[in-house]
Records
---
Amino acid sequence: MSTGASDIIFFVHCGSLSEPYETLKDLHSKFSRPIGEKIPNLIAGTRYESAEYDAIIDEMEGMVGSPDDARYVELSTMALDIYLRDMPESMMLEELHVVVMNNTYWTGWSSTEDPYVAPYPSWEAWNVIVHTIQPME
C-alpha cells in the first residue's frame, strides 16, 4: 500500500464530519510520490496531484474553518467541485451507525433542535459531546 505496487487498495479515509479542510487536505500533492516510492501518510495515500486543488488547500490551511466565513465556504466548495470532477478516490461502503441517547443521566445531546454533531457521532464528535452534555439533577 505505501509504495503503490497494487492494482487496487481498500482502505478507510478518515477525515472529519464537520471540518472540510481536515478531509480535503489529505489529497494535497505534497503527499503524493511516484509509484514504487513510499508515501509519507497512509491516510493521504491517493497519489493525487492537482496544482489547482493544491492552491485552494494551501489557502484553507491558514484559516479557521467556519460556515460564517464566506471565503472559507467558497474555497471548500471549489475544492469539493474538483474532488467530484477528478474522483481521486471512491467511497465503496456505507456505515450504519445506531447511537441511542436519552436524558436519564445526561442532557444536552445533539438533536434535531440542536444538531451540533452528526446524528451518528464518531471520532472527534465524541470530544464535542463530552464537553457539551451535562448531568441530570
Note: Residues 20-86 form one domain.
---
Amino acid sequence: MEALRGAGLGECSHVVGAPGEQDVVEVWYDGKRIVQQARDALMQAWGEVSWRMARQRDNPHCADSEYEGLGRGGALSMALTFAPDEDVAAPFIARGVRPRIAILREQGVNSQYEMAAAFDRAGFSAVDVHMSDLLAGRVSLAGFQGFAACGGFSYGDVLGAGGGWAKTILFHSRLSDAFTAFFVRGDTFALGVCNGCQMMSQLKSMIPGARHWPRFLANASGQFEARLLMVEVPKSPSIFFDGMAGSRMPIVNAHGEGRAAFEDDAARRQAIVALRYVDAAGQATERYPENPNGSPDGITGLTTPDGRFTIVMPHPERVRRTVQLSWQPAGLGEDSPWMRIFRNARRWLG
C-alpha cells in the first residue's frame, strides 16, 4: 500500500480481502456481513456443471467421488523418514567411477531426458539406448549394470499398455535371451516407470521373483489422468527405496492405463508392494481421484524379493528437482526427496 501511495495511486487502492482462520468465505459491506458460506460448498456449487458433464462422459462413480471431495483440502503433505538433502551416492561419485546405465526407450517414449538427468546427477553414465539399437546389434545389454525403462506411449498404446514394447522382446529370440541373461546376472538392476512399468510387468516370466506382478489396464475413470498425488513408501526390499520406508510425499502421475490387475487374490497378497497411493490421512486408498486409476489397495509400485527390479506407475524422474513439484513444503533444497531413489541405486552398486 505504501508503494501504491508513493506512485500516486493511494486513492484508488483498497484492501478487498485477506485469509481468514476459518474455512469459510465471508463478504462484508458497510460493517455488516452479507455473505457467509463454507468454502467446500462454494467449490461444489462452482463445479456442479463440470460434474454433471463428467458423469455422462466418464465413469459416473469416479465423477461422483471427485465431486464429493471438492474442497476437502489437506490432500498434499510431506512426511519423510530420511533427510532429503543427504547425498548417499556422494562417496561413490567421489571415486570418479560412473557405472553405465541404459536409458531404454521405444518408439513413442518421451521421458528419457528426465530419466537420464536424474541418473546422471546420481553418479551414473547415462546412455541413450533405443530398442532399434538392441535389435540391430549396435548396443548390448551386457555392457550395462542397469537399465531404466522410460515412460511415454510406446506404439501409441494402441497395442495395450506397454504391450508392443514387451512383445518386441518376448517374440524376438535374440532379444529375449539378452534380457533374460541381464535379469539373472545378479549384479544388475532395472527400474520401469509408467510405460516402462507396463512393459516390464509383461516380462515377468523372465524376471526372477516377479511372477506375482500384475498387468496394467485402463484407468477406472476411463480417462488419461495427470495429477500430483500422495504416495507412501511401504517397507520393501527394493534397492531404490532403501531407507525411505514410511515416507509420504507427492509425486506426478500421467497415464491412461495404470490400474493394477492381478491374476487372482493370491497373487495380490504375495506381490511385494513398493509404492501405494494414500489419502490425506496417510491411509492406502482406492478412492478417486486420490487413487487415479482404481488399483486395489492403492498399489502403484512393485519389486522383487531381492529388490533389484522395481516398477512404478508414477514419475519420480519428473519431480527429482524441488521446483518441479507444483506444491512443496518450505525448506527443501535443489533436490526433491525423489532424488533419493536414483542415489540409492548408485550406492547399491558401491
Note: Residues 39-57 form the longest helix (19 residues).
---
Amino acid sequence: MAIHAQDWSPILTNQKMNYKHSGSDAITNTFWITSKLWTNNDTTYFFNKAVKDDDNPNIILRDQLQFFTEYVKKHANGVFVFATPENYLIRSLANMGNVWMFNNGTEAEVTSITEEVVFGVQDSVKIISLSDGNELKLSKSFGLTKFPDFENGGYFELAGIQDTEFGEQVLDFWGIFNYEVGDILQRQYHYSFPGYTHSHVLKVLINSKEIINNEINYSVYSLTAGYDYWVGGDYNYYSNANYGELNYSYYGDPIANKFQNELLLLEDYPYCSPNGDDFLFARISTYLDENNLKVKHWGKHFNGDDGLYYETDPESDILNALPYVNCITEGPKGMTYTESLGITLMYNADDESEDYFYLMGYVKDGVTVGTVYPNSYFITGVEESKSIYSNKYIIYPNPAEDWLYIKPINSNNSETYNFELQNIIGQIIREESNIESSLYAIDISDFKAGVYFYQIEDKSGNIQQEKIIIK
C-alpha cells in the first residue's frame, strides 16, 4: 500500500496518524493535514486542531494545537520546521553523528541508524537524541514514531495509520456495528413521563450478515418482554418473538467516526443553552472498557462531568460547560458506541421525561458478559410471572453515596434472596448471595459516581430490577 513517507518525511501528508501518550492504553491524538500552502520551493502543511481543557473546570477551549504545533514547513534538503507556538527543526536526511539546533538552545544529533520492524514492515529507523535528554525516533516509511511531550513529560508514540492495516485504529462505523453470526445482544429499554412508564428487555440473536456497498444488513431472531403502566391503571405485560432485520447505513461523516477530543455540533439542541439561542456542542472521548474493547462516547456522562458545552461568543475559543440542571438538561444526554457491540448506551432526560437504553449483556464466541436471560424468560410470557416486575424490596437511598440498604416490603418476609449490582454495560461489579436480613447494608463508598442497575432474585426465581444513581 502506498502510504509510506518519502525521503524520511516526519509526517504522512495523506494519512491520519494515531498516537498514544506513553502509559495510555488508548489512542490520545490523531493528526492529519487539513490544508497546504506552496511558497517557492517550500510546502507548509497545517494540522487539524482539537479541544483542550482549560484551568477552569467549567471551560474547554476549541481549536487548540496538539503536540505537533500548528503547522510544519518542508524546506529543501529534508529540513522540516514545526512552528507555532514553539519551533522544532528536524533534519530528516541527517546522517550518523550530524548535529544541529533543534529548539531554543537544545541540540539534536543522529545517534543511531538501524533496521527495525515497524507495523510488520522492515524499515530504516533513525534515533535523534536531544541535549535535554529526550529523543525522537524517525521511521523512513511511517514518519515520527516517537516524539517527546515537552509540556508534561513522557512520549507520544505512533500507534497506527488510520484506515490501513498498519497498527491500531480508532473505532469507527465499521468496527462498531461489526456483529458476527451467533452473537447475542440483550438491551434494557425504558421510557417514562409523568403518569406513564414503558420498559422492556430485547434479546437479539444474529443469524446472518451481509455487507452491500455502504450498508451492513443482519437477519436476526429477537425476543421481547416488557410492560406499559399508566398511573391509576393496570400493568400491561407482553412478550413476543419474531424474525427480522437490523440495517446500518454509513452516510457522510457519522458521529461514530470522530476522533478523540473532536468537537461535535448538536444542531438538534440549540434551545438547551442558558441563553436559549446558543449552539450546543459535545466533545468526543475514546477509551478502552473493562473488557479491553474500544469505546467512543459523546455527551454528558452519568456523573454530570464533561460532554456538553455551549458558546456565548462565536468568535471566541471558549466553550462553557452546560449546567447540570438547565433547560431540558436535568439528566445526562449522550451516546456510547462500543467495538463490535453497536450503540451500548443512549440516555436523554429532562425535567419531565426519561428515555434510555443500555446493553445488559452479550454473548460472543460462546462467552457471556453481563446479564443475558434464557429464552424461556421471553417465550413463556411475562404475564404468567408478573412478579418479575412486582417490587418486593425497597432499595434506598437513591441517589446513594456511601451505603445502600435493602429492606423487604413485607416485614414478615423471611425468604432469602440474591443481589447483583451492574454497571451500565451489564457487567456485575458486586454480588451478595443468600441474604436473609430484614435490613441489609451494602458499602458502595469505593464505587465511581454514575448510574448502575441492581437485580434482586428471590428463591422462587422472581426478579426485581431498577436503576440506582451513586453520587
Note: Residues 17-161 form one domain.
---
Amino acid sequence: MVKATALRATLAAAILVSGATATACDSDNVDTSGSTTSTAMAPLIPPTPSTAAETTPTEWPHIGDEVRDGPFAFVVISLSGSRYAGDPNNEYLQSRAQGLYLMFDVQVSNISSAPQTFHAANQTLHYRDRVFAVDKRAALWADSERVPINPGNTAAVELAVDCPSDIVWWDETGYHTSATSLVLRGTDRSRRVAVDIQYMGEGE
C-alpha cells in the first residue's frame, strides 16, 4: 500500500505525461484558431501554500493510493492539464474545453464477484463548496464513459473536468490547479471516497 507524504512543491516531476514538452504545452494554449491539431497534455503544478485558499486533510488518500468504493478499487495515477480531451489520434473525436481541462488517469479494478460497469458521470471534482462534473462527451471519446469490467479485471480510464480559470490555469511555468479532491464513486448509491490531489504518495 502506498504511503502518503507531505505536500510536494511541484507535482510536475512525479507525473510527467510522456511526450508532453514545453513547446507542446505552449502551443496548446496559444492556439485560438479552433483547430484540434495539438492535444498534448501537460502536468499540473499545485499551488504553493501562500496561494492555496485551503488545503485538504493530510489523512485523506492521495494520488497513487488505492481507494475502494462499492464494487471498485481506484488508483489515481496522474493528473494533467489540456485544452482538448478525447481521442488524441482523431480530431473529430475530441472535445474542446470552455476553460481548461483537468485530466485524470485512473485505474479501476472490479473487486466484486460479478460483472460491473464503471460510470464516468458518477465521479466529481471538488473545491471548497463547489462541485465540478466530468465531461461526458470527452469521456465518450476516450472510451471511458461506461466501462464494463469483469471480476478481477482492471481498466484504465481517463476523466476530463472542464474547469474555470480559478481552478485550472496556465502560465509560463505550466498548468496549475487549486482543486483539492477528486471524489470517486463505485455506483450512484455507494458512499463515495475522496482522493486528495494536492499531495503525492510515496513508496516505502
Note: Residues 126 and 202 are 23 Å apart (CA to CA).
